[in-house]
Amino acid sequence: MIELTLTELCWAVVIATLVLVTLFVWISRFAHHNAEKRGVRRRWICDLCLTVWQEQHKTKIATCPHCGKRCMQKK
Ligand SMILES: [Zn+2]
Question: pTM for this structure?
């Protein structure tokens, strides 16, 4: 059996907590970054009336819901 002093146990708890918090922050930022990229890919801006909308499907040409202009994806 491993014998730990109180000081060693406290350090282990502190280090484990830091590692878990760092891991959680890293995963959270990664998920947020991916969600942001996904949103930008689906976001469309009409050239004519500057209406902003999101298309649910991946497409190269979309119709503006406000003025009906056919817009092309700019990349
Ligand atoms: Zn428009």
Answer: 0.55
